[in-house]
Amino acid sequence: ARKFFVGGNWKCNGTTDEVKKIVTTLNEAEVPGEDVVEVVVSPPFVFLPLVKGLLRPDFHVAAQNSWVRKGGAYTGEVSAEILVNLGIPWVILGHSERRQLLNESSEFVADKVAYALSQGLKVIACIGETLEQREAGITLNVVAEQTKAIAAKISNWDNVVLAYEPVWAIGTGKVATPAQAQEVHADLRKWIHEHVSADVAASVRIIYGGSVNGGNSKELAGQPDLDGFLVGGASLKPEFIDIINSAT
Ligand code: 13P
Predict the structure, then answer these.
(1) I need a labelling partner for 185 at 20 to 30 A (CA). Which of 68, 163, 202, 208 fits?
(2) ipTM beyond 0.95?
(3) Which of 19, 50, 90 has its CA nearest to residue 235?
């Protein structure tokens, strides 16, 4: 069985006071145990040590990016080794905001995934189509191409969670319907079965992201191939706890 996974991507938000407040809310929340749902929150880099230090021990932290190879003279970047040194277990890679706004290609994202895994990080790898691509009927081709680039560079998927985040659903309030999400998750799992292995297809968690909130998470969570969420805006609010609780 695939353990439910709920990630909170705080993106480029928060002041020290706001971050402390969110952590306090999370720490006081009643949620199922770590054996039932894995919870990971991802503050901006500079808040990672603060959040890690204050956060309850059954929740974990993720960085929102890491450099594509070993650190060195790369101004403004943070390497996987630095994250490991700080005890940060997870990293989000290939988010559509970085693919689109910073021109990160599928190749580049795949290199980052491979390098982060090689250093011992666990990776939330993001994929997803734009509205234009969905309307052109090429959703599966797009997510398969993004996944294929990663599959070509890694051999062990144990420490990978795939986040399907349709670009048109991110920050728009236009959540995918449970049927739309399930369809892509099932297609993707089938693609993995055929192109990676039956074992990986059965075990890899495919989580959904894009306008998930406390009101729509329960029905989405009921879909058989949907193994959790990557939450943006709602992860900054107390309703994140309702989303975590939709695991059961
Ligand atoms: P929203 O939940 O704000 O739509 O963002 C989703 C997302 O991009 C999570 O990584």
Answers:
(1) 68
(2) yes
(3) 19
